């Protein structure tokens, strides 16, 4: 089925100037960018987005990293988009990510791992709504 998923290019990858290279990976995988914005997250936004992790030991480091610079946030649409995006991102820990994946190629550590992608249909819907109003999403008409 055609799905939508929420993707974030994190501050490490924005700083490395590889937004375009990562967008190219999405496009080559058949994922369409149907919404996008660059943001420098506030602490409140980062804490809200990652609220599910707030009891985890890495929560503070995660929030501080995510507000350390601008991020690029996008909605990707396509057949099986959630799993497809996870496949091209590679494992959360870049040291375990398959060769040729975004994290293997652009990330150095589990803390600074270049990209985020929704992990399932419910989180995708929630995460998309966190950043985008319905009228900010632009499905293809041709
Ligand atoms: P992300 O998919 O954005 O979701 C939460 C992030 O926390 C994750 O990517 C990692 O960058 C970061 N993180 C740091 N340590 C861990 C850990 N031990 N397990 C999972 N995520 C971690």
Automatic annotation (TrEMBL):
Subunit structure: Homotetramer.
Protein name per UniProt: Nucleoside diphosphate kinase
GO molecular function: nucleoside diphosphate kinase activity
Keyword Cytoplasm assigned: yes
Keywords: ATP-binding, Cytoplasm, Kinase, Magnesium, Metal-binding, Nucleotide metabolism, Nucleotide-binding, Phosphoprotein, Transferase
Catalytic activity: a ribonucleoside 5'-diphosphate + ATP = a ribonucleoside 5'-triphosphate + ADP; a 2'-deoxyribonucleoside 5'-diphosphate + ATP = a 2'-deoxyribonucleoside 5'-triphosphate + ADP
Binding of ATP, residues: 10, 58, 86, 92, 103, 113
Role: Major role in the synthesis of nucleoside triphosphates other than ATP. The ATP gamma phosphate is transferred to the NDP beta phosphate via a ping-pong mechanism, using a phosphorylated active-site intermediate.
Family: Belongs to the NDK family.
EC number: 2.7.4.6
Gene: ndk
Active-site residues, Swiss-Prot/TrEMBL: 116
Cofactor(s) needed by this chain: Mg(2+)
Localisation: Cytoplasm
Ranges where the Nucleoside diphosphate kinase-like domain occurs: 2-139
């Amino acid at each position: 089925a055609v799905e939508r998923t929420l993707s974030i290019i994190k501050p490490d990858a924005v700083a490395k100037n590889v937004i375009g290279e990562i967008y190219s990976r999405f496009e080559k995988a058949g994922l369409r960018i149907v919404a996008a914005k660059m943001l420098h997250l506030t602490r409140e936004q980062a804490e809200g987005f990652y609220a599910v992790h707030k009891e985890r030991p890495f929560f503070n480091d995660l929030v501080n990293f995510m507000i350390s610079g601008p991020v690029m946030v996008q909605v990707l649409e396509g057949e099986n988009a959630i799993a497809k995006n996870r496949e091209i991102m590679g494992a959360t820990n870049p040291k375990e990510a398959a060769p040729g994946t975004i994290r293997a190629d652009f990330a150095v550590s589990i803390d600074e791992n270049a990209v985020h992608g929704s992990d399932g249909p419910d989180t995708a819907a929630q995460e998309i709504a966190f950043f985008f109003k319905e009228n900010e999403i632009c499905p293809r008409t041709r």
